[in-house]
Amino acid sequence: MNTLAGTPVLLRLALRRDRIVLPAWVYVLAASVVSTAVSFRSLYDTEDARLRFAAGIAANTSLRALYGPLHDASTIGGLTAWRMGVFGAVLAGLMSTLLVVRHTRAEEEDGRLELVGAGAVGRRAPLTAALLAAATANLVLAALVAGCLAATGEAPAGSLAFGLALGGCGMLFAGTAAVTAQVAGTARAANGLAGALLGTAALLRAGGDTGPAWVGWLSPIGWAEQVRPFAGDRWWALLLPAAGTALAVAAAYALVARRDLGAGLLPQRPGPAAGAPGLRTATALAARLHRGTLIGWAGGLAAAGLVFGGVSRGVVDLVGDNARVADVIARLGGRQGVLDAYFGTMTNLFGMVVAGYAVQAVLRLRAEETSGRAEPVLATAVSRLRWAGGHLLFPLAGSAVLLAVAGVFTGLGQGAAMGGTGRAVARLVPAALAQLPAVWLVAAVALAVVGLAPRWSTAAWGALAFFLLIGWLGPVLRLPQWALDLSPFTHTPHLPGGAFTAVPLLWLTALAAVAAAVGLAALDRRDLG
């Protein structure tokens, strides 16, 4: 049989299954780039203002580690490429990683690929369909970024180079995920390996931008920087991610033919003959299932907190005498000083990020249900509500832990940069925890979707993307207040420095309780699966 037989059908199936999540990813990424360009145009409307801005950040090592070097500040496109190049490349890589693993290793783990493979489907068809779906998403992303930037008046060549740099990085990590899907035996492990490689690439890029330049050449994210959109347009640098993608895809194709279906190349360790005493309850089992994810998110937020806190001194220098920049930062994070406004913005961002963890933790309920693992638990003297309650402990209490970790490490970063560590931590931990009711509401919406429309459970990610788009980009785009109010993160206090009002938090908590009650009632009444 042709090893690629059935690829077109599987590709259409993959695109249909991701018809909500994938457009949300692409739209948010492209909208972030365009909104950044629009905000830079309003803040630095003359070349002289842009050059003064560049002079203020040229010697700031923290900002170079965070965003990379600014190659050309004379154009809005150059500023946009500096501001969104690193984050855009990382997010494109994350999007591609999740997409490829979802349609390869996750399908094997759930047993669906075995049923598909029983038909006229070649051995390499599922992997090829997943890679083609990733290529489609990255091509659309590159086209949207290039077209929108060019439509705003930026150089077409630089716009195209920037779009291809983001798409090329996304495709490279799609190939990387294709390899980890063959090596690991579970989707979680495959995502973990690919995520570790993505994080390593980000660290190497930061090391190359602040230390020896050759270190940056070891990172695929550093390759995206070397394209230098709007600053010479190094088209030859696009050959690096293309070659890396080709090598990774070739390795994945070689590995998929050398392993058994459903098994990874890494051997699975057999479990103990008897369960540990600590796994005698449904809550303990849920804790065992969630703890790895919680630890991983905590480590990522700790690293991000150190970085964001460490650049606090540079934020004050960055604003300088530009009243427009100070006004925008104040609108986003409060009006009690530029530094408080910056940290208000960061704590709001941490809330949005932790909401992603909350949605993931809630959707673990649906994953346990569809995989059949929930059925043996519910066959014992465990009710559905007790089973669900064990899992829901993590989007509730786990989110609080993550926000506290973010606040602590941001305070430590600020203390290392500016002194006063104890005071910084004491101010930033409550500021981060103030985002908790909004996170709970997002988690409750996800639970309501799982309970009422389980087949559409992935739509919870679409709801989160909508909230993020409104909450993060709404102030920059100057959306009307009624539109901003649609996001729960609009109603959280902008601390530290802003006024604290308990009433909006109580309303958010009450709405979260109602949505959660609806979701649990529906889950208790409907058929499983």
From TrEMBL:
Protein name listed in UniProt:
ABC transporter membrane-spanning protein
Superkingdom is Bacteria
Keywords of this protein's UniProt record, alphabetized?
Answer: Membrane, Transmembrane, Transmembrane helix
Q: Which organism is it from?
A: Kitasatospora arboriphila
Membrane-spanning intervals of the chain: 20-44, 82-101, 129-153, 159-181, 193-215, 235-256, 294-312, 341-363, 392-412, 432-453, 460-479, 499-523
